[in-house]
Design goal:
Elements: H1 57-60, E1 75-79, H2 80-86, E2 92-93, H3 95-100, E3 110-114, E4 124-127, E5 129-130, H4 132-140, E6 144-147
Length: about 150
Amino acid sequence: MLSNEITANVGAFPKRKRVGRGHGSGHGKTSGRGHKGNGSRAGASTPLAYEGGQMPLFRRLPKRGFNNAVFTTRYEVVNVAQLERLFNDGTRVGLEELAGVGLIGSISSRVKVLGDGELTKKLTVTAHKFSKSAEEKISGCGGTAKVVA
């Protein structure tokens, strides 16, 4: 194949629609926007659930019940294997240290330590919650698991 024989794939780049260029083009005068109304104006946009002034579906349907999802306490998860990898023997591991190494987002987040992986180092870990296996692994190495009040 020679460089002068290379051509673009047919239909790969469709022609741009040029509006407002005379009535012979089929897109003249109102440029395909119709007459008057919000859609004809510049910068016009309608809300996602807008139904042309009709009462929207989410307002027509009855609201029932209560959902507690907003009030759930969410925990950031830290595994024992991550503590093994990032901290030295005899280290005190608190929320500040976890946030410092990037295991949790911020000091204000609630932390739960899970027992995935192995632990060989003696650590003093402070968190909001511990799984049974994590607590066993930490205390099994001579460390302590303290719960934040």
